[in-house]
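Quality-control log, excerpt.
Job 1 of 2 completed; input and output follow.
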Amino acid sequence: AEVTVGGNTKRYATLTKAIAAIKAAVAADGADLEITLKILKNISESGSEWKIDGNTKKVSFRMDLNGCTVIGNGLYITGEGVEAVFKDTSTGQNGTLNTPISIENKAKLTVENGNYERNLKFSGGATGELKGGHYSKSIYIGKTNSDNTGISCTITGGEYDGSEVRVYGGAALSVSGADTKIKTLQIDHSKNLRAEVTLSGGEYEVITLEAFPGSNEDLLDEEQHYAIEDTLADGYAFYSAGIKTDISRTEKTLNNVKVLPADTPEDVSLAVVKFQIEKNDGKTKTKYFLTWDAAMSCLEATESNLNNLQEYTTWKKLEILL
C-alpha cells in the first residue's frame, strides 16, 4: 500500500503498517492533514482491524482501491474532523473492500464508486454521502434503542443488494437518483424519535415500516409522519410498472416501486383495469391497476384501506373498465 501525507509518499508491505504510519502522522503533526491511501495489490489480512482516528483534528483521508481487493476484519473512521472519501481510480472501477466499515463520532464518509461486501454502519453523529458503488451487505443508519440525533446518510446513486438499508429513529436518510437501486429499505421509528426519510428518486424491491410507536391510528395522523407515504418528497410519487401507485397510510409494506416526479406520464400499456371516478364536487380521477385482484383489493373494507374509506365517501360515480 502507498501512503501520501502532505505530498510525501511512502510504500508499505502491509496495510496494517500503512495504517500505523497514518496514525503516527495524525498524532505527530499539529496542522490539518491531507492523506491518501492507495492500494497497490490485493490484500488479505482477515484478522486485522484498522482505524483512522482524527479526534478533533481536521483530516482529509482518501482511499483509492485502485482495482484491488482488500480483506480485513474491520475499518473504523472516527473523529469530528475526519472526512473520508472511498473511490476507485482504476479504469474498471471494480475494486472491492471486504471488511466491516464503521463511521463514528461525527466523522464523514463519501463513497464515489467501488464494491463493498460487508456491513456499513453510521453511529455517533456520523454522516455519509453515497454517490455510487455496489453494496452487497447491510447499511445501518443509527442503532436501535439509541439517540441517533445528528446521524444522516444521503444516497444519490449506487446499487444496494444487501439484506437491508435500515434507518433508525432520530437518524435521517435521503435518497435520490434515477439509477439508485435498493433491494430492501427498512424504516424503524423509535418511541421518542422519528426516522426522517425523504425519497425523491430510487427504485425499490421492498419498502417496509418495521416499527413505529402507537397503533394504526397513529399512522393515519399525517402530522406524525410515520407512514410510508410520508417518505415522499414534495412533488414525487410511487410508480409500479409505469403506473402511479396510491397507498393507504396504514400500509406497512410496499413492493416493486420507483419514486418519480408526480407529473411523470403513466405507462398504462400493461394495465388491465381502469377506474374512472366522478367525485361529488364534479372533479374526476383515474386509477389504473395491473391485475383484477389489485383493483378489487383497493375497494375492500379492510384494515389496510382505512384511509381509502375516507376517500370513497367523496365519490359520486365509479366506472370499471377492462
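Job 2 of 2 completed; input and output follow.
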Amino acid sequence: VFYRAERYGEARTQALLVRSMATSTEIHDNAEVLLRKIEGARLNWWQLKLSVGYLYDSNATLGPKQEDAFYSYLDYSGAAEEEDQALVLQGAFRHTVVKSSGWSWMTFGRINQIDYARANSSDYLNLTLASGPRYARRSADFSLPVVMQGTRYGESGELTIFRYGLSPKVVHHLSEHWQIQGTLNLQRKNDNDVTESSSRILIVSPAIGFKESRFAVSVGGQVGRESAEEDLYSYNLASIKSTVSRKWLKGLHTSIWGGFFWRDYDEQEPGYDEKRQDRTDRIGFSTLIDLAGPQCQLDLTLNYLENHSNIPSHRFDQNQFYATVRVNF
C-alpha cells in the first residue's frame, strides 16, 4: 500500500520489518524483492545510523607485553599494555541521488569516537567522507568516490592523520548469488606528529562472495605499499581475510571473521641489525539482535588480535568487547 502510494520511506520500514520477522524463505525473498523495487524507485534518499555503547579493551595502548617492553634501546616502559574501558559513539549516513538510467551520485559519511577512562593518549576520533558517481547495471557496478579521512589520537590531538584520494570499485555479478569485486585505493597521507611526515598509499583489494537470503560468505585480500618520506616508515603489505554471516529468525544475525595481515618494512629498526617484519592475526564474532524491529538493534562484538614481530617491542595482543545500541533511520 505504501509503495503504490509512493510513500517509499514507510514502505521501506514495513518491508524491513517483514523481512526480519519472516517465518519462511518465500516471505523473506518477497520482502527482498520489494526492497529492491523501493530503492530503485526513490530518486533522492537518505540512510542514517547512530550508535552508542561500551567498550572493554585489554590493551588500550597497543603496548608490548611487560617482558618485551625493555628489549629496545628506546624506552617502552610507559607504553606497556594497559587495560581500560571506554565510551563508544558512532554515526553514519548515506545519500543517493539517481541521475538517469543506471547513473547515480552517492555520498557517505561516518564518525567514530572512542573515549577511554584512563588511557587518554589512546582516545580516538575518526571522520570519513566519500562522494562520487556510480553506474550500475544488471551484472556490473562501478563507482569512483573521492575519499577524505581524518583521524585524531589522544585527548588533545597528540597525533592527527589526514588521508585523501580516490577509491574506484568494480563489482561483477557472476550469477544470482555469486559476485567478484575489486577496489583500488590511491591515497596521500599526512601526519602532524613530531616527524610531520607524508606518504603515498597504493592498495589493490580483490574479493569473491556468495550471498543468498540468509547466508553470506566472502574471501578477499589486499596487496599494496605505503611509501613514506623516510624509509623507516615505508613498507609492503599483504592480507587475506574471510567473513561468514548468517541471518536467523526473529531478528538474530551473527557473523564471524578472521584474517592475516603482513607488513615488511624497508629499513632496519633503530637499535637492531634487521628490518622489521610483522604479521597480525585477527578474529572476531558479532551478534546483532533486533530490539524493536530493524530500526533498533543491540550489537555484541568480540575482537581478538595478536601482532607477531621480529622486533620484540612490537609484539602485542588485544581483546575487545563491544556492546552498543544502534538506531537505524
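Post-run check on job 2. Residues 235 and 265 are 4 Å apart (CA to CA).
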